[in-house]
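Handout, section B. The chain below has 230 residues.
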Amino acid sequence: MPGRGILGEGTSVALGWLKGVTDRLRGGGEPARAQREAHKRARAFALEVHQAIPRALQDGNRAALEALVQKPAELALAEEDVELELEALHGALDALTLRETVGRDGLPVVAHQHKAIGEDRCHFVASAFLASDGSDRTGRLFLTDRRVLFMSTPMVSVSWGSVVSVDVQERDLLIDANRGGPRYRFRCNSFSDARCAQVIAAAIKSQPAAAPPARRDSSATAADVPPESR
């Protein structure tokens, strides 16, 4: 009898060891299966967010976005597993809020101290870097009543009359200049900055073209004339 007991215990240990090996070969047992299921839910949620944001922005459907913000908790998903999706949703909500504000109060005017902007009215400013030319130049992105201005070296200036489309891809603001012309990809620091920039750009484009700057009086002295025109 003692021998059978010892044999039984050894067999149990061996079976436990074999089950552990089998679980590892199959993907790690119950914890790994739970992790795979969580990853599956996170991927499905990411796809749902990707499909829902354009529709919600087009329809002005704030409720749909707010429901999706709450969904990770319902799916037992950790926030860090869907961090980008939540940031994208909050960015879309910020864009809807800004669109409502612009529709009610008009374009915001942002104070600035940059001489290069001149007499332009600035409606948006954010830090960004230019990702479209491979240089990843950092700078400040300004949207004024007359142009898109990226304050860096060298400076990028595109008049709204030359802009044919403005789009957003994640944190990137995409601006196409002329048909078949260059595409500028300004990578913003957040989804919200990119989405809000698109709202401002659309509002500016929908307005009548800004009048050109007033010409200087012909009696101006040489000191009043920019060096390159002397």
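Note. Confidence is low (pLDDT under 50) at residues 3-7, 215-230. Compare this with the example in section A.
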